[in-house]
Design goal:
This protein is α/β, with parallel strands linked by helices. The chain folds into 3 domains: about 10-100, Rossmann fold (3-Layer(aba) Sandwich); about 105-330, 3-Layer(aba) Sandwich (UDP-N-acetylmuramoyl-L-alanine:D-glutamate ligase); about 340-469, Alpha-Beta Complex (Protein-Tyrosine Phosphatase, Chain A), CATH 3.90.190.20. About 30% of the residues lie in helices and about 20% in strands. Strands 7-8-6-9-10-11-12-13-14 form a 9-stranded mixed beta sheet, with helices on both faces. Strands 15-16-20-17-18-19 form a 6-stranded mixed beta sheet. Helix 5 crosses helix 10 (about 300-315) and helix 10 (about 300-315) runs antiparallel to helix 11 (about 320-330). The radius of gyration is 23 Å and the shape is globular.
Length: about 475
């Protein structure tokens, strides 16, 4: 745990008692603050009370007496579509609103750093797709190379639940737009922006607000090194904004999956890109490294090649050699539920991408494979799967589940389909009909909440059914 600094003797409200909220409350208490906790969910309140935390309802103005700050969990809206009533009350009472990420960046550096020969580093990763894989991949490479490192934020442990800084240690944080938008303090050593696609627009008041939240990591965080995906206009804009010197590109490393960046933007900058399965690093007008990604089972598809470029650039920024990074990339096993290859039977490959809850992420998974037996559906999102028409040539047949099954079937054009309803029926039908060379792919392009409590639970069900084969 990282004790929160600067709040000793203060009353601090904590709104939301999930993973990050509980960690924040405990870290505040460890730093000498009095944490006053609330969650609308009674079970969450009971859990916090069992952990020895103080439950405090924020209603009347008197309830705010002496409270100096309110720490808000990322799932609670503070601006759009409308502010949570407790956040509105905090504003009315003049109480500063922050989150656990802001507390982390205020508290991670301590006077003990004066005695370190090698200072700790923080790598912060954001983007619409690939954040978790990129963060986990960086952590895997560093661990494989015996570098002390921790992984947290929007993946694994809450930021304040991590261990205090150690000599030469690296913290890898996955940060969502929800976390970035509210944090009052941001100061990563290395910031990574992967990509941008329409998501969470109701929470940010549109695409511009969504990008503005991501941009805060760089515009206000001021990282020493900015690794920026330039396959969309927003990334190109951000890379240009962060560039300090014409030609050299410092302190930016541009990354891409599909573009040859060498020779662009003055030709003397630092860039890492992947084309046709090969990763290339260029610096000062010449190629300095090349890696064949095609046989790396844990990194299938073009989207994972972008993740590999980002992780490679981050580790190069920390001084790792290309050959060492290549070795560790090859041993990366992949994250559960994200293009996770479960196994092969009778020449049929089974892949779990339950995390593909929207069209963009489903398209990335589908474009990584050929001859697909596609399991899709669930709690559909606006637009359904109409935007996946360009991927359907890869699909031999679709097996549709969940409440969106009928709606999705109307958007498949001439692609054969079967309305299965449940995951068990879909897996059986797909496995019975699959031939050698096919891929049975779970990439739902829908939320899971009609049949499962989370995308993880959905992916676990698929995994168990495949294992039973």
């Amino acid at each position: 745990m990282i004790p929160v600094r600067g709040y000793s003797g203060h009353k601090v409200g904590v709104l939301g008692l999930g993973r990050s909220g509980l960690a924040a409350a405990k870290a505040l208490a460890a730093g000498g603050a009095e944490a006053l906790c609330w969650d609308d969910n009674e079970n969450a309140r009971d859990n916090a009370k069992s952990e020895g935390l103080t439950i405090h309802r924020f209603g009347a103005p008197a309830d705010w007496q002496g409270v100096t700050s309110l720490i808000v969990s990322p799932g609670i809206p503070h601006l759009y579509p409308k502010p949570n009533p407790i956040i509105q009350a905090a504003w009315d009472q003049g109480v500063a609103v922050d989150n656990d990420i802001g507390l982390f960046f205020r508290s991670f550096a301590t006077q003990a750093w004066d005695n370190f020969d090698v200072l700790p580093k923080i790598i912060a990763v954001t983007g619409s797709n690939g954040k978790s894989t990129t963060s986990a991949l960086i952590h895997h490479i560093l661990s494989d190379q015996n570098r002390p490192c921790q992984l947290g934020g929007n993946i694994g442990r809450g930021a304040l639940d991590l261990e205090p800084a150690a000599e030469g240690g690296v913290v890898v944080l996955e940060l969502s737009s929800y976390q970035l938008e509210l944090a009052r303090s941001l100061s990563p050593d290395i910031g990574i922006f992967l990509n941008l696609s329409a998501d969470h627009l109701d929470r940010h008041g549109g695409l511009g607000g969504y990008f503005a939240a991501k941009r805060r990591l760089f515009a206000e965080g001021g990282p020493d090194r900015a690794i920026i995906g330039v396959d969309e206009a927003e990334g190109q804009y951000l890379a240009n904004q962060m560039r300090e010197t014409a030609g050299s590109g410092d302190p930016v490393i541009r990354i891409s999956s599909g573009q040859k960046l060498a020779g662009k933007s003055g030709g003397m900058d630092w860039c890492v890109f992947a084309r046709k399965g090969f990763l290339a690093e260029w610096r000062k007008g010449r190629q300095v490294a090349s890696i064949d990604l095609r046989g790396m089972v844990g990194l299938p598809g073009v989207h994972n090649h972008q993740n590999a470029c980002a992780a490679f650039a981050a580790c190069r920024s920390l001084g790792l050699a290309p050959k060492a990074i290549e070795k560790s990339l090859a041993s990366y096993p992949g994250l559960p539920h994200r293009s996770q290859v479960l196994g092969v039977k009778n020449g049929v490959t089974y892949v779990n991408d339950s995390k593909a809850t929207n069209m963009e992420s489903a398209a990335m998974a589908m474009n990584a494979f050929d001859s697909i037996r596609w399991i899709a559906g669930g709690q559909g999102k606006e637009g359904g799967i109409a935007g996946l028409a360009h991927c359907l040539a890869r699909v031999s047949k679709a097996y549709l589940i969940g409440e969106s099954a009928v709606e999705y079937s109307k958007q498949l054009g001439d692609t054969p389909f079967e309305i299965c309803g449940t995951m068990a029926r879909a897996v059986k039908a797909a496995s019975d009909e699959a031939q050698s060379g096919d891929t049975v792919l779970l990439a739902p392009a829908a939320a899971s909440f009609d049949q499962y409590e989370s995308f993880e639970t959905r992916g676990d069900d698929f995994t168990a059914l495949v294992a039973a084969l």
